[in-house]
Amino acid sequence: MQRGRTIDHVNDGMLEIRYESIGGLGAHAAGQVLATAAVLRMGMNGAHFSSYGSEKKGTRIRSFIRLGPSDRPIRTNAPVETPNAIVVFHAALLRDPTTYAGLRSDGVFIYDAPPGPVPPQLTALPRHARAIRVDAQGIAAAERSRPNAVLLGTLCAAIPLLDTDLVLEELNATFSARHPEAVAANERAFRRGREEFEEYAGVGRAQGDVPPSRPQPAWGYTTQPLGGVIPLPGNTAWNDLSSSRTGHIAVLDRDKCVHCGVCDLVCPDLCFVWGDGEQGSPYERELMGIDYRYCKGCLRCVESCPSGALSKQAETPGLADSLRVPLFPGVIP
Questions:
Q1: Residues 158-172: tens digit of each pLDDT
Q2: CB neighbours of 123 closer than 8 A, spacing ≥ 6?
Q3: Contact 17/79 with Cβ under 8 angstroms?
Q4: CATH fold label, 11-200
């Protein structure tokens, strides 16, 4: 653990936090816990809501929290565009420039990743912002908890305005009624998240605040295309499911593979790559590998493999890229 500067004040009297996540990792629940703790236990004014995609596991989710003193009403329900803190629940989201949008120059950026090199994408952060890495997936797996409990602990450590004990009380109260068996595990994960993080200084290169992302309408009434025309048709070749994975991938051992094709039959996303058998091989077609661009980590292939050639492994930074066999070589980078 490495500690540095902490947010002990906020601009304009408001603390604004944005969670960047995907469905299934608990960002919405974490936002509810934090806002409820602030309002009911800390005597603050607070607001929380989330923005969903198709509301299913693996789709993009943003959760917004605004907190302020009790004498300052919160009169907006707009998304948080210029947050004091951004919490990223999945490392794949670091590749999206909108993940960093609006972070203030003195803000905090917390992301979930196992130990390893600093991601080069963090140069998009402000020069004076703090970047904090915590292995939320790893801690959650070890404690039989969820990544949101870990990241809540790290966020409380980074922002002293958040009373750690009161947030933990609310976390326990939230789960004690519906899932009492999870209370102890969540508390252990929360406490480890508060202590077991690593802080990087000076990784950002941006001067001042990161510009906010305000999407504008693509067309107006004078510029819209003719009715019935689809100018940008969808193409599954450009799809990218890597952000749907939650910590594990299937890894192929070709020496054990019998090229039976059962994995391809059960794969919902057709991410297995086949090729002609080598000269002298008893197989006419052989499994060459996996294109992880299209793999969402369901691991049905591992469960179905009769030879044990496919195994479940933790996804460390760069592992999928190093093992990837492209389905469309020369077309998709």
A1: 999 999 999 999 999
A2: 203, 204, 205, 206
A3: no
A4: Pyruvate-ferredoxin Oxidoreductase; domain 3 (3.40.920)
